[in-house]
Specification:
By secondary structure, the protein is α/β, with parallel strands linked by helices. The protein is 33% helix and 22% strand. It contains 14 helices and 20 strands. The strands form five sheets. It has a six-stranded parallel β-sheet, sandwiched between helices. A five-stranded mixed barrel has the order 16-17-18-20-19.
Length: 451
């Protein structure tokens, strides 16, 4: 009997990339488990291995091949299906990877069960089912449940922006949204599972409302969405993932500042601190607007955490323009950076632009901004020492320690205590330890209550 036949109706998943991918993987996993599959770890023998890919990472091809090899090592007779953004962009390329049996595009991935029923191990190239991206004009609601501490809730998909470096519109299609009713119902389902935190995810969540009812109109706005979610009982925290600065309005910032459940944490892509580079990127704002967004947040939420995405090495980014970015970020009251090194993508405008920055220079600039990010994070953590804040503890035991986050995204740790998992505790932030996280102690009021 083959290894595959010894593993009837077992499925393993591996997800690459963003929170949105994790939300979609979880939804597909629930579809399969509802159909009778048992979910196992990716390195265990399984009948089916599903790899949800990303196109943003520089090494999408290498990462895909690596995880196919992992699957084949776990069970050489297992069926391997590739889904996600990379599968939509490069289906033919993926179909020729040894071990791959099925490639599904953006439209087909949520129907994976129907493709698995008659799937056999490929003798040569894999079976491909991939749509033209303009056919991906529908919305499938999704949410992920990982460590039972937080859930990623998908509220929007696709993007109508035409940033010159980005392939996401080619991989995910036009901007469209879930209905407010569905989002709220999903939030209630999550709350019923005793999950304390929801992270709102999408490709361009500030554009929420477009395509909610199958057209391009905005029947509702992002402000309408978060206003309704703030009323859902049972969710302690709601965190907004990345949101475009031009779509983050004063009214939304004000709502978060007064909210029952939304936390003071924003992640706002900048990409460049040079207006000239921003124009070449076809971003929809300039640095003045970005600075105003940060100032508004600081005005109403002085302790808010503000994260920033930035790209280094974009074509035409001279040393002078890079230093504009560096100095702009250095002067901004932000909390941390996510730094990306520009890499050329097929079928994007930027890939044909002049002024290519040499790879060693891109790496040097990346390192400079990563160092700046660490300085910014430590400076932000310093401002929080001595304060007593609510900490949500995660489940993992790492060498005797457990980790959690405050509402404003300060990472903390303490000795592992099974009774603290998925609990929110009021704790005093005492010092930044050798690991670069914050040590805590019980608030004095909690101590008095226990004696």
């Amino acid at each position: 009997m083959t290894e595959r036949n010894q593993q009837p109706n077992t499925v393993a998943f591996h997800t690459l990339g963003c929170k949105l991918n994790f939300a979609e993987t979880s939804t597909i996993a629930r579809q399969l488990t509802d159909a009778g599959y048992d979910k196992v770890e990716f390195d265990q023998p399984a009948k089916v291995y599903i790899i949800n890919t990303c196109s943003v990472t520089e090494n999408a091809d290498r990462e895909c091949k690596l995880h196919v090899k992992r699957a084949m090592k776990a069970n050489p007779e297992g069926l391997v299906a590739i889904i996600g953004c990379y599968a939509q962009l490069k289906p033919e390329e993926i179909s020729n990877i040894e071990g791959v049996d099925l490639v599904l595009g953006a439209k087909e991935k949520f129907n994976i069960l129907s493709y698995l029923n008659d799937l056999e191990k490929a003798e040569s190239s894999a079976e491909i089912h991939s749509c033209e991206i303009d056919e991906a004009d529908f919305f499938i609601g999704s949410y992920s449940i990982g460590d039972r501490t937080r859930a990623f809730l998908k509220v929007q998909d696709g993007c109508d922006y035409k940033c010159t470096y980005c392939t996401i519109p080619l991989a995910r299609g036009i901007s469209r949204s879930d209905t407010i009713e569905n989002v709220v119902n999903n939030a209630k389902e999550i709350a019923a599972k005793d999950i304390k935190e929801i992270v709102l995810t999408g490709v361009n969540i500030g554009d929420y409302g477009k395509g909610e009812f199958g057209n391009k109109k905005h029947e509702h706005t992002f402000l309408d969405l978060i206003s309704e979610l703030d009323k859902v009982d049972g969710i302690e925290r709601i965190r907004i993932s990345s949101i475009e600065p031009n779509l983050l309005k004063d009214e939304s910032i004000d709502l978060v500042s007064k909210s029952r459940s939304f936390v003071p944490h924003f992640h706002i892509p900048l990409q460049s601190g040079s207006d000239e580079v921003l124009k070449k990127m076809k971003r929809r704002y300039l640095t003045n607007l970005y600075q105003n967004r940060v100032s508004k947040i600081r005005e109403v939420m002085p302790d808010a955490c503000i994260g920033v995405d930035v790209i280094v090495g974009f074509p035409g980014e001279t040393e002078e323009k890079f230093m504009e970015t560096y100095n702009f970020l250095n002067d901004l009251p932000i909390s941390y950076l996510h730094v990306f090194t520009y890499s050329e993508r097929e079928n994007t405008e930027a890939s044909d632009m002049d002024g290519v920055v040499p790879i060693p220079e891109r790496k040097k600039r990346n390192k400079m901004l990563r160092i700046l990010s660490e300085k910014k994070k430590m400076a932000f953590y310093q401002t929080q020492l001595g304060k007593t804040l609510p900490v949500l503890w995660e489940h993992e035991n790492k060498n005797g320690f457990m980790y959690g986050f405050t509402e404003n995204y300060v990472r903390v740790r303490k000795a592992f205590d099974i009774n603290s998992v998925n609990q929110i505790e009021m704790l005093k932030l005492t010092k930044i330890d050798e690991e670069g996280v914050v040590a805590v102690e019980a608030a004095f009021e909690d101590f008095l209550a226990k004696i």
